[in-house]
Amino acid sequence: MAIPTSPPRRGLLRLLSVLLLARTAGAGAGAASEFDDGTSPKFPGCDNTLQKVKVMYWVNGNEQSSLTGISARFGAVLPDTAGSGGQKRPAVQPDPKGSCAKSANPLSDSVAVAVRGECTFIDKAKTAEAGGAAALVIINDEDALQKMVCTDKDPPPNINIPVVMVSKSAGDKIQSALFDGNKVDILMYAPQKPSFDGAIPFLWMMAVGTVACASVWTVAVVGEEPNKNNAASLGGEENPEAEVVELQTQTALVFIVTSSLVLLFLFFFKSNWSAWLLVFLFCVGAIQGMEYVASSLAIRACSRCGEPKVKFPGIGNVKVLTLVTLSLAFIFAATWVAHQNSPSGWVGQNIMGICMMILVLQVVHMPNIKVASALLIAAFLYDIFWVFISPLIFNKSVMITVARGSDDGPSLPMVLKMPKEFDSWNGYDMIGFGDILFPGLLVAFSFRFDRSNGKDLTDGYFLCLMLGYAFGLSCTYVGLYLMNSGQPALLYLVPSTLGVIALLGAKRGELSQLWNAKV
């Protein structure tokens, strides 16, 4: 039973743009939760572990969203919970506001909120402590967190108050409240990272399930053999021009250049409008994906549901089912945009993302492993460079910085994410769409190849690649846990998928057939 629910050609360009942007959305499977690098000098009085700090603050007694900071190598150590020695204290901005000279504003038993510049971090801390401050918060001059360490020439600081840095955008929120004459209170502590992250198994299942589901969708749900000419127009009429997009080896070069330029743009020009542009692109692809998935499932359950049509001037016949599902998808996406930062916003984002990726893997095909090798190796090198090598050029990992986003504006949506239930930060584990789509293209190819050559699960490639993808993703999370830093997932996924099909094909004497296939 054929179900004509494939997307129209006019939507393919938008889908491909989302596919290319997918590699800018996440640095693999997570981001670092610790800042300590073990390279800066340590000696008595300056040997603290650099810790991620939770900065809670209240404006006129009303609790605000907590901010993130980093503790200094020197100074008092913060408690690990809000109730174990932590105390809410009034925030005061010194005068001068850099805390490089004695403050005209009383600092006794307060949290001094100073700006960066004019003198060293140690001098700021000594001045604030001499003025009676109980803690010091330093506002950075950029949206990043600077490690506050000592040099080999510094004498022991002997500072007995906690010193914490926050980003410029975070500090601006506190400064704005103080400037308006509000009473601001601050409480700081450094939560410990939980030994077990219960979100990772669920994220692993979502990623593996999405690849498996998208690969077999045409056969299992649409009910037809996968081929290049089963697409249909929006109204369901046959359209010979609406074909699947077949990737070529040149796609690898286009991918490297386009994704790198977009990544650098987001790195240097982080702004609300660029983040909202990505949200818009995500919603366009997700609406198409939700319409496709919902229509496919509806027609699979009731084949006659796709028969009623309405004729529109200039468009032609349009399925009533398409109008209904497209409208519902638009409402769903609009609701998510309005509530994307709510505690349950991740659910809507995952639903939209999974539907979009299912559609992309129906529309975009790798015809053989020659194209797969070019694209996946390019993506492999791209990940390695922008995660591990870029800090040598830009002083920080470009991809991880972009993936983390900023404190203002929407977060980048091209990720699947799960909340860390056991984490005091209430953060998320994430995996970028590219870490699902790029290996997924190869896994989907293996399924089509098996079907076209009469292979089953025992003598085909699909099951082996699914197991390889699941194993590679598991290795990604093991690496994340052991190295305690963001991992480029394709570092593990490319060898476990492309490597598996190449070795298995060579062993079976079918490597040439896989290399030159047209499926």
UniProtKB/TrEMBL annotation:
Pfam families in UniProt: PA (PF02225), Peptidase_A22B (PF04258)
Start and end residues of each stretch annotated as Disordered: 82-105
Gene3D superfamilies listed in its UniProt record: 3.50.30.30
Domain PA: 92-174
Signal peptide as annotated in the record: 1-27
Entry membrane topology: Multi-pass membrane protein
InterPro entries assigned: PA_dom_sf (IPR046450), PA_domain (IPR003137), Peptidase_A22B_SPP (IPR007369), Preselin/SPP (IPR006639)
This protein's GO CC annotations: cytoplasmic side of endoplasmic reticulum membrane; endosome membrane; Golgi-associated vesicle membrane; lumenal side of endoplasmic reticulum membrane; lysosomal membrane
Keyword Lyase in record: no
Keywords: Endosome, Glycoprotein, Hydrolase, Membrane, Signal, Transmembrane, Transmembrane helix
Compartment(s) where it occurs, according to its Swiss-Prot or TrEMBL record: Endosome membrane
Source superkingdom: Eukaryota
GO terms under biological process: membrane protein proteolysis
Keyword Methyltransferase: no
TM annotation in the entry: 202-223, 252-269, 275-299, 320-339, 345-364, 371-394, 430-449, 461-483, 489-506
Role description: Intramembrane-cleaving aspartic protease (I-CLiP) that cleaves type II membrane signal peptides in the hydrophobic plane of the membrane.
PANTHER family per record: SIGNAL PEPTIDE PEPTIDASE (PTHR12174), SIGNAL PEPTIDE PEPTIDASE-LIKE 3 (PTHR12174:SF72)
Protein's name in the database: PA domain-containing protein
Organism: Panicum virgatum (Blackwell switchgrass)
Species classification: Eukaryota, Viridiplantae, Streptophyta, Embryophyta, Tracheophyta
